């Protein structure tokens, strides 16, 4: 199932599929990808345990649910903004995870050696992706969408999760 705005261009959403045969009474498993600018994250197929992944992604203190609103920072040049968010998350040396303020906590993406950051100016949302290569987080892509479109998609993802509970 695709969750998101299906009108072209569809630049943000989620592809999710609950697979009962992979699940039991404790675990609800399936596949989940985030789509950003016609690319899927994670890049490789990974089993998603919805009842452990989605509570983190959808929690009230998650960057995905409550992105930082900072107009000045939002309008910073893209690669500089990416570095600021990466520094806050992993430190300047990229040696540990320090702060999830800007990072979308989608474990399957992170485990696939990608990071997606988020920030808002109040009216719009900016998502930025980066790939880990040789212990460096390299800026890859960004998407800017209206906040309403973004939050409607997150609400639909939450509705999907609630059907599994």
From TrEMBL:
Official protein name in the record: Immunity protein 42
Organism: Ruminococcus albus
């Amino acid at each position: 199932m695709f969750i998101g705005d299906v009108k072209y261009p569809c630049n943000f959403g989620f592809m999710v599929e609950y697979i009962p045969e992979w699940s039991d009474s404790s675990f609800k498993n399936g596949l989940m990808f985030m789509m950003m600018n016609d690319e899927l994250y994670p890049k490789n197929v990974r089993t998603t345990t919805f009842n452990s992944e989605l509570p983190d992604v959808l929690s009230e203190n998650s960057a995905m649910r409550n992105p930082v609103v900072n107009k000045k920072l939002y309008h910073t040049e893209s690669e500089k903004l990416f570095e600021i968010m990466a520094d806050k998350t992993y430190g300047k040396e990229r040696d540990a995870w320090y702060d999830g303020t800007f990072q979308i906590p989608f474990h399957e993406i992170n485990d696939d050696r990608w990071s997606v950051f988020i920030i808002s100016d109040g009216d719009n949302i900016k998502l930025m992706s980066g790939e880990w290569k040789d212990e460096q987080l390299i800026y890859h892509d960004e998407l800017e969408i209206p906040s309403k479109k973004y939050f409607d998609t997150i609400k639909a993802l939450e509705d999907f999760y609630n059907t599994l509970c």
